[in-house]
Amino acid sequence: MTFALKELLYKMADDQLILGHRNSEWTGMGPLLEEDIAFSSMAQDKVGQSLALYTLLHKLGESDPDTMAFTRNANQFHNCILVELPNQEYDFSLIRHFLFDTAEALRFEALTHSSYEPLAQLAQKIRGELRYHTLHANTWIKQLGTATPESISRLQHSLELALPYALGIFEPSPYEAELMAAGIFEGEQALQDKWLVRIESICRQTSLVLPDLKVVTPVLGGRTGKHSEHLQPLLDEMSEVFRIDPGAEW
Amino acid sequence: MNSLDPRVNRLPEINEPVSPKAPLDQFGTFEVFVQPKEGKPFQHEGIVHAPNLELAYVLAKEAFTRRFTCTSLYVVDTRDVFISPMTEGDKNTYDYIQEPPEKADIGSSFEIYHLAKRGKQHVHAGTVQAGTPQQAMAQARQQFKTDKVIYNVWAIETDKIRFTTAEEKELWLTLPEKKFRDASDYKGGDKLKEFLEKMIK
Fold first, then answer.
1. A249 to chain B nearest CA, in Å?
2. Does any domain span residue A229?
3. Which own/partner contact pairs does A21-24 have at CB distance under 8 Å and 24+ positions apart?
4. Residues of chain A neighbouring B174 (CB-CB closer than 8 A)
């Protein structure tokens, strides 16, 4: 059981850390001062949430959070590939933010009922942050998804690009049945079904066309450490300062 | 007033009649009001630029309520804020508000804000019922004018405001734990002292 639980915590923590780092690359370069602040702040929230999850893992016997975040190689990370993809244009980051954060908010919402008490408590605690993240994502998607031909076509292009990777969020775990039986987590399939309903309902309020998921091939592998070429450079940059003096106190 | 410094040109004129507050340049501006604690009045915090009211709310949340405690937030289009003449010294702005010619009829509700000290924020004084912003100002004079000098009054139609909903109150749930976002939380002086002591030894 501990093994199954750790797998769940690792993939969640790694998702938050890697996307938090990616999104923080926009700091100082956002399209609008206020948006720069908001997006950076949410990136900071994500890194904070990853710390909370790594701390749970630490209590289950894993290394301390800094060691886990800064010393593993790409093939030891369990994040989905969606979160490690480079930022490209802002429309891609917004679409990723929308697709990922919707799933993330639903995952934590389900975990508020988890039989693993520390995780249920964490999910309760951060629900306000997640509410903001989805409010922010939905508002931008509704705005830009109805604004001008350029904004709509940019979002549509990014949506089609990101969707196969977004399905990788729900890559099934070998421990699904075990987690469900123990009442820890409802499982990836149930989560994906709820996610699709939310995504569809927002897209319907815009001019965006959500491709039929039956013809989209999910990009999997992230959960078992098979990543794109983009993750290792991210990790190298993220841990650059840490590696100068791993024992330093900040 | 005409100056090469745009900030000087944006300073409000004295003794102008009741008029809408002028927006700044760039994207449209929206005024942000924050309630720092439960039971405290809302106060004006500043502006955000945004393409519409809903996005203004979203952006204002992080721009203005990242650090200090907050229980609620609202935004309104700058063009929906009506302002009285700005006064100074012992001149009360309420004495310069003209009685509107038309009689007060069926009302909308208006939020009234007071500037009690030049350079400070406008603070919520109360709500009045009126037909127009001008009537709202006159109504505010009746209800809220005291011996205390008020330098500026704002009237905002309540229906034009994007309020925080009951469920959205949880947006600020983890804020009290984020003291590290405050510069004062980083004890730089202590760390320096500790470092210097270590160096001397």
1. 10
2. yes
3. A21/A47, A21/A234, A21/A238, A22/A83, A22/A84, A22/A85, A22/A86, A22/A87, A22/A93, A22/A234, A23/A93, A23/A97
4. 125-126, 128-129
Q: Give the closest-approach CA distance of A75 to chain B in angstroms.
A: 33
Provide the CATH number for the domain around residue A84. Answer: 1.20.1260.10
Q: Closest chain B residue to A140 measured between Cα atoms?
A: B55
Q: Which two tokens stand for residue A28?
A: 């100082």
- Provide the token pair at B153: 């009054």
Residue-wise pLDDT for A112-135, tens only, equals 999 999 999 999 999 999 999 999
Measured between CA atoms, the residue of chain B closest to residue A130 is B171
Write down the ipTM of this complex: 0.92
Domain hosting A18: range is 2-244
- On whether residue A249 sits in a domain, the answer given is no
**What pLDDT digit, counting tens, does each position of B48-72 carry?**
999 999 999 999 999 999 888 899 9
Structural domain contains residue A250: no
Say how many CB pairs under 8 Å bridge A and B.
57
Q: What is the mean pLDDT of chain A?
A: 96
pLDDT of residue B191: 86
Cα distance from A139 to chain B (closest Cα, Å)? 7
Q: Is A125–B174 a contact, with Cβ atoms under 8 angstroms apart?
A: yes
Question: Where are the domains positioned within chain B?
Answer: 13-200
- Evaluate whether residue A195 is within a structural domain: yes
